[in-house]
From TrEMBL:
Species assigned in the record: Deferribacter desulfuricans (strain DSM 14783 / JCM 11476 / NBRC 101012 / SSM1)
Superkingdom of the source species: Bacteria
Methyltransferase type domain location: 44-138
Pfam family, one: Methyltransf_12
Keyword Methyltransferase attributed: yes
Keywords (A to Z) from UniProt: Methyltransferase, Transferase
GO molecular function per UniProt: methyltransferase activity
Protein name: S-adenosylmethionine-dependent methyltransferase
Ranges that cross the membrane: none
GO BP annotation list: methylation
Amino acid sequence: MGISKFDKNAFTYDLKPMHVERAKAVADDIKSSIRINKDWHIADFGCGTGLLGFNFIEDVKQITMIDVSQNMLDILKEKINSLNITNMKILKMDVFNTNNLPIERFDLIVTLMTFHHIQDIRLGLIKLKSMLKNDGFLALADLDEEDGSYHQDGDTVHNGINQEELKQFASEIGLRFKTSNIPYVIRKTIDNTQREYPVFLHIYQK
């Protein structure tokens, strides 16, 4: 999916109940898997309109919301201002096209439904690892590998993520696999047949 389509989808993204439910389910699973500290600074990578990150507002000291879609971030900014949220900041950044990654290092990075849109998954893991503190956590949730029917328009890079391959990449770059789960299952009707698309969650530690 190109950036322009993310920008277009920004205006209706929060109106889909599934998106809200999925983010809440993933956030709840992250919280049950990691003992989050109130002093933590965390980041939401590929944050979009903030549906995942908003679930951590009361749990941490600060949240940095990272995305490349200006429209998504504009909507996120409106939400932050309207709710008077003081511990969330926005960072527009394409981590693959810059060497100027955030100076700050995070205790936890969360990401949801982002990596199957990334060409080089291994490089994505390398970039996020470099943004973590020592012993920091990466909570990566994404679409499990599927047959291509989920994105029928073909507007994606990967048809989901192969979990074993993901774990292998993470191991190669020095991220320790901690646990995995299926916090949410997306249900879509394809050709008059209901299909299920699991969303997995992997927890890694630097």
